[in-house]
Amino acid sequence: MKVDLFGPAFKADPYPTYAYLRSHDPLHRRTAMDGQTAIWFVTRYDEVAAILRDHKRFVKNVANTLSPAERAHLPMPPPLLRLLSNHMLNLDPPDHTRLRALVNKVFTAQVVAQMQGRIQRIADQLLDQVHAQGEMDLIEDFAFPLPIIVIAELLGIPPRDRLRFRNWSNAFVTPSANLQRSAKKMQKAGQVMEDFTRYMRQVFAERRRTPREDLITMLLQAEENGDTLSEEELFSMVILLIVAGHETSVNLIGNGLLALLQYPEQLALLRAEPTWLPNAVEEMIRYDGPVERATMRFAAEEVTLAGQTLQRGDAVSLVLAGADRDPVPFEQPNRFDITRSPNRHLGFGQGIHYCLGAPLARLEGQIAIATLIQRYPALHLTTPVDQLRWRTVPIMRGLHHLPLRW
Predict the structure, then answer these.
(1) CA-closest candidate to residue 166, choices 146, 180, 137, 187
(2) Which of 189, 249, 294, 317 is catalytic?
(3) Bond preceding residue 26 cis, omega within 30 of 0
(4) Per annotation, catalytic residue among 143, 171, 244, 280
(5) Which residues of 182-210 are buried (b: 16+ CB within 10 A; e: fewer)?
(6) Is 9 noted as a catalytic residue in this protein?
(7) Beta carbons of 201 and 225 less than 8 angstroms apart
(8) Are 217 and 207 within 8 A, CB to CB?
């Protein structure tokens, strides 16, 4: 059976396709654009969880699948791709260990917890701006601006520059393979990245002259106090913070509210018993989470898994959306149930690459959802669900728009 994993009809509802693959082809093999490299799409919970934890046999840097002689013949990637890829999500130990230890000193639970009051004020202000209209596009008016304001404030970016982060964020989550298909797209992406690097160099220089209480200053001080960050690593770290602190939250808020509106009895329960809120957000991440597929891994050696043999260098796409609807660990997996327990979803990964932005995304999701449903008891969709458009970025699952009225 020919399986569509990228088209708009698939993106509108990928879950039946993933259910088919789990049952009939849990390690589904495709060939990459080069016509040679195998890509394995893994959809069952057990295999996805095992690979997430196995950072030795499944590496993030494809160069770590090669022999020294093979590495010597690798072409130098262009500057654009180096900036996009030289971050923790694409690195293996010991490089990953060093960078993770550094950023853990900076992006702490205490830093996130201190944002709670500010996030609530931002949520209230955004809804105040549209309240009199009686309607809004949740994505444009609320789900997008809330996390971008939060991460911009954490980084110390002034309000006038926040919207520029949207173009940058979109560029960062666009697969490089998509860019390479079109010289025009590659040129435009290059211009976006040049704009970003020019802007951030100015910010870095200003923070070196005048340190502030923000994450960029903390990264620069950590670099200068011993744990050295190269210029590329500084840029890549900021990129990762933008994506981890923004993209996941936009999709979590949009997808999560849509799930509640599709399950009115769950919405009624959450309104009646707000103590279910943390559990509800976990179920939102499991049921229709913000990250559809984990970033790519590569087999570092020949591996046999689920009756299939993966060759050294094969690419592996872990389908988190498929694993989190697996009926083996989750009873009635296609039902949205905010009381589900246990709920060991894989929405933020496992192992050494567990999502850096998970605590912030959870906090933003809880505040955003609670504020929306408490403020607007008559909140409802103005567009049929089957007419909603989903973004086509393969690794993300999120809506273009979500029109609401109250």
Answers:
(1) 146
(2) 249
(3) no
(4) 244
(5) eeeebeebeebbeebbeebeebbeebeee
(6) no
(7) no
(8) yes
DSSP symbols for 111-151: HHHTTHHHHHHHHHHHHHHHGGGTEEEHIIIIITHHHHHHH
Span 164-214, pLDDT tens digits:
877 787 777 665 544 445 667 667 777 887 888 889 999 999 999 999 989
Does pTM surpass 0.85? yes
Residue 295 has what pLDDT? 92
265 is catalytic: no
Residue 204 near residue 238 (C-beta atoms within 8 A): no
Catalytic residue among 247, 282, 283, 292: 247
Q: Is residue 31 helix, strand or coil?
A: strand
Q: For 238-289, how does the pLDDT look when each residue is reduced to its tens digit (9 = 90+)?
A: 888 887 778 899 999 999 999 999 999 999 999 999 999 999 999 999 999 9
- Measure the N-to-C terminal CA separation of the chain; round to a whole number of Å: 44
Asked if 63 and 48 touch (Cβ cutoff 8 Å), the reply is no
Q: Is 244 a known active-site residue?
A: yes
- Is 150 in contact with 245 (CB distance < 8 Å)? yes
109 Cβ contact list (under 8 Å, min separation 6): 359
Alpha-carbon distance 154 to 106, whole Å? 11
Determine the 3-state secondary structure of 105 from DSSP. Answer: helix
Selected catalytic residue, list 153, 223, 292, 364: 364
If residue 188 lies in a helix (H) or strand (E), which one and from where to where?
helix 183-209
Tell me the residue type at 225: N
Among candidate residues 280, 300, 323, 355, the one labeled active-site is 355
